[in-house]
Amino acid sequence: MIIVMKPHASQSSIDNVVELVKSSGLTPHLSQGEEVTIIGIVGDKSKLSNRNLEIAPEVDKIVQVTESYKLTNKKFHPYPSVIPVGKTEIGPYNLTIMAGPCAIESEAQLLTIAHAVKKAGATILRGGAYKPRTSPYSFQGLEEEGLRYMKKAKEETGLATICEVISEESLEAAVKYVDMVQIGARNMQNFQLLREVGRSGLPVLLKRGMAATIDEWLNAAEYIMAEGNHNIVLCERGIRTYETATRNTLDISAVPVLKAKTHLPVIVDPSHATGVRAYVKPLSKCAIAAGADGLMVEVHNNPACALSDGPQSLTCEQFEDLCQELASYAQLERRTFR
Ligand code: PEP
Ligand code: MN
Question: Which of 1, 3, 11, 117 has the highest count of CB atoms within 10 angstroms of its CB?
Fold first, then answer.
């Protein structure tokens, strides 16, 4: 449930409600806007039955949140969240571009790409060190060695960094080297892993499961938030449909739907959504127009020889061209970029 305070309620009235909630053994979650303060509560509401919150000073109303996800719910937190990652921020004021190779293949490969994407306008370097591949015989990633190259790339370029984690062991390693962790589509409902990243303290990029509904996705985010980690960004990366012309089908409507349901930032990954590099640019434009807070784009210095996802990877030059063209789209949406 949420307790909505009257506009411009005094701090002492807010403190009074917070205290009533705490003394009932529940945790209040405050969302303070310029006018209205909302206090969200998750858990056994019967503990508040004799507290008469409705008539506490400056309480406007009490609203029940019927959705199963609460902390991620926009009703709990009506203002868009801004997620700090390294020196940058993901949120409504800028357009965040995460770019880099699908898989980290060598130090030289990663550094070349890191410098190129930085120059073009990316602020976060992506690169997989633990690759959840469809086939067990495909390249599985450099693991901790790859993470060390990520750290080096960060030191050289100043870019923030993100790597996917697939297990407790990879998470333990990642926290030593990168600024943000990614939960991939295949692990979106790995609830134990969600809890662990929730306790890691690092910001999390949660990709949508291949066949996950938006409700299931928001509940997965709730698992992370329930552990006290509120720094979550959602990533639409296409869903499985009957269409085979593209690798997945980009659910562009997920962007405005999420904006209506949650305060968390939303980014779009047109690379995995299509599997085809030629479609990355049109869908990037589309994502920005739909209200996305950023993009995740795969870039490779030599896609023909990439160990993973070459066909959907842009060359460094194509990425530069993409960013140049996206600058005016970002401006149209009043987002800072480059
Ligand atoms: C990736 O980002 O490299 C990846 C494996 O993506 P997804 O989990 O969306 O398939
Ligand atoms: Mn990939």
Answer: 117
Helix (H) or strand (E) segment spanning residue 31: strand 28-32
State the distance from the centre of ligand 2 to the C-alpha of 255, rounded, in angstroms.
21
For residue 238, which atom of ligand 1 is closest to its CA?
9
CA 325 to each of CA 60, 282, 294, 301, 337: distance values in angstroms, whole numbers, following the listed order: 47, 10, 14, 20, 11
Query: What would the DSSP string read from start to end of 85-145?
Result: ETTEEESTTB-EEEEE-SB---HHHHHHHHHHHHHHT-SEEE-BSS---SSTTS----THH
Q: Using CA positions, which residue lies closest to atom 1 of ligand 1? A: 102
**Given phi > 0 = left and psi -120 to 50 = alpha, else beta, which region is 8?**
left
- Tell whether ligand 1 has an atom less than 6 A from the beta carbon of residue 184: yes
Ligand 1: residue of 182, 187, 193 to mutate (most ligand atoms within 8 A of CB) is 182
Give me the chain's average pLDDT, please.
97
Average pLDDT over residues 3-14: 96
Q: 93: which 2 tokens?
A: 């004021």
Alpha-carbon distance of 167 to 150, in angstroms, equals 19
Contact at 8 Å (CB) between 79 and 31? yes
Q: What is the mean pLDDT of residues 188-201?
A: 98
* Protein residue with its CA nearest to atom 4 in ligand 1: 184
Does residue 51 register a pLDDT over 90? no
Strands 83-85 and 28-32, by their bridges, are: unpaired
The answer to whether the CB of 294 is under 6 A from ligand 1 is no
b vs e for 219-258, b when ≥16 Cβ sit within 10 Å of the residue's Cβ?
bbbbbbbbbebbbbbbbbbbbeeeeeebbbbbbbebbeeb
Q: Which is nearest to 51 in space by CA: 18, 10, 4, 77?
A: 18
185 lines ligand 1 (CB under 6 A): yes
CA distances from 95 to 115, 137, 330 (A): 19, 37, 7
- For the record, the structure tokens of 96 come out as 């965040």
Ligand with smallest separation from the Cα of 207:
1
Considering the entire predicted model, what is its pTM? 0.97
For residue 279, the CA-to-ligand 2 centroid distance in Å is 15
